[in-house]
């Protein structure tokens, strides 16, 4: 996904400066936006070359030569719909513009052509009560809280469908009917959705025992309160290449102790280190499992992912880590929710 801020310029930017932006990205493209990021036009290498042929000064503002009526799509447009428009209009990229005219994303032909259909099942855990986000979750389950222009869980589903995944199971409990009413059978989202209804809270892994049948190939499990732009196709390919039984996505976490840390040997001071920084890999809440893992899930009791991973490692079943370099946010606290709303426009459509 392109960083749309890096390919955007203001209408007063000179043609020369805009040309630098065009030359420095893989698309030979720039978007012209207002101060509030509304799309005013687009510029390609061809626009600039035609301006040069007309004798227009490179110091002139880019608004003089930009395409003021570019082809655009709404955030609701599906990948097949966008591909069809690209082919009809003979364009390599299409800006995504919301109802207010704000430039929110860029769809690229090469990226869409790389998408391949996948029969892998995706299980989304959306049954939690979201107690740490009260009062927001008093009347709305956490996965349906709005971030950007759609509910969080809808963004998650779309990120998967954009990479060719279409088979989903959503584990529900708290205010389950609201989630089921929103997504239905999934057809509105280019997906096939079934529901795993938890009679009681089953923990972060227990609802896997509710799958109607054992998967016949690797499957992805993800918490329904995570905002991320991981390339799930790459994740699945990594799992397969590693010949792993389980793949655990991890995120680098840095923690600085705000004091001088003293190392002692009984009463003797051995060393003091001022405000040391510690690095950890933390669980990112996204997993890939082989079908054999289902046999380890107990029925009718709460069972967490930490227990499952411990069993796998204790039994020396191959469990590997997939480090996330992309955007990732666990919507656990009110501060996380507010930050995610700010980040949305930069990283998601």
List the helices and strands and how they pair.
Blueprint: E1 8-9, H1 15-23, E2 29-33, E3 39-44, H2 45-53, H3 79-89, E4 93-97, E5 103-108, H4 109-114, E6 118-125, E7 146-147, E8 150-151, H5 152-161, E9 165-172, H6 176-183, E10 192-197, E11 219-223, E12 226-228, H7 232-242, E13 246-256, E14 260-265, E15 268-274, E16 277-289, H8 305-314, E17 319-323, E18 328-330, H9 334-347
Parallel strand pairs: 1-2, 6-9, 6-11, 9-10, 13-17
Antiparallel strand pairs: 2-3, 4-5, 7-8, 11-16, 12-18, 13-16, 14-15
- Distance from N terminus to C terminus (CA atoms, Å) equals 10 Å
**Oligomer status:** single chain
Tally of DSSP β-strands: 18
SSE pattern? EHEEHHEEHEEEHEHEEEHEEEEHEEH
What can you tell me about this protein's structure?
With 349 residues, the protein is α/β, with parallel strands linked by helices. Helix content is 25%, strand content 30%. The chain is built from nine helices and 18 strands. It has a seven-stranded mixed β-sheet. The longest helix has 14 residues, at 334-347. The termini are close together.
Task: Give the tags.
3-stranded mixed beta sheet, 349 residues, 9 helices, alpha/beta, 25% helix
Q: How would you concisely characterize the structure shown here?
A:
The protein is α/β, with parallel strands linked by helices and 349 residues long. The chain has helices at 15-23, 45-53, 79-89, 109-114, 152-161, 176-183, 232-242, 305-314, 334-347, and strands spanning 8-9, 29-33, 39-44, 93-97, 103-108, 118-125, 146-147, 150-151, 165-172, 192-197, 219-223, 226-228, 246-256, 260-265, 268-274, 277-289, 319-323, 328-330.
């Amino acid at each position: 996904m392109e960083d749309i801020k890096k390919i955007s310029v203001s209408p007063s930017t000179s043609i020369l400066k805009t040309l630098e932006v065009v030359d420095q990205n893989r698309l030979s493209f720039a978007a012209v936006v207002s101060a509030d990021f509304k799309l005013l036009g687009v510029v390609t290498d061809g626009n600039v070359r035609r301006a040069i042929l007309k004798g227009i000064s490179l110091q002139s503002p880019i608004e003089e030569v930009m395409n003021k009526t570019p082809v655009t799509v709404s955030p609701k447009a599906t990948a097949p719909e966008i591909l069809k428009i690209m082919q009809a209009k003979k364009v390599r990229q299409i800006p995504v513009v919301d109802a207010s005219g704000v430039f929110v994303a860029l769809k690229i032909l090469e990226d869409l052509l790389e998408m391949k259909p996948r029969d892998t099942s995706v299980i989304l855990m959306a049954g939690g009560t979201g107690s740490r986000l009260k009062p927001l979750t008093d009347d709305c389950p956490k996965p349906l809280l709005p971030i950007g222009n759609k509910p969080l869980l809808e963004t998650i589903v779309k990120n998967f469908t954009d990479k060719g995944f279409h088979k989903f199971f959503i584990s529900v409990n708290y205010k389950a009917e609201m989630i089921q009413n929103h997504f239905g059978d999934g057809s509105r989202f280019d997906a096939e959705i079934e529901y795993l209804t938890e009679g009681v809270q089953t923990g972060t892994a227990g609802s896997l025992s509710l799958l109607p049948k054992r998967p016949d190939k690797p499957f992805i499990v993800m918490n329904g309160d995570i905002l991320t732009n991981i390339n799930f196709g790459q994740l699945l390919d990594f799992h397969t290449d590693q010949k792993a039984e389980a793949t655990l996505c991890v995120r680098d976490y840095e923690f600085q102790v705000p004091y001088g840390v003293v190392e002692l040997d009984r009463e003797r001071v051995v060393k003091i280190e001022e405000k040391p920084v510690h690095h950890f890999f933390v669980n990112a809440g996204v997993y890939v499992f082989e079908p054999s893992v289902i046999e380890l899930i107990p029925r009718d009791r709460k069972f967490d992912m930490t227990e499952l991973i411990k069993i796998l490692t204790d039994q020396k079943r191959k469990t590997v880590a997939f480090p996330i370099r992309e955007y990732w946010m666990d919507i656990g606290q009110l501060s996380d929710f507010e930050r995610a709303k700010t980040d949305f426009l930069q990283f998601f459509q």
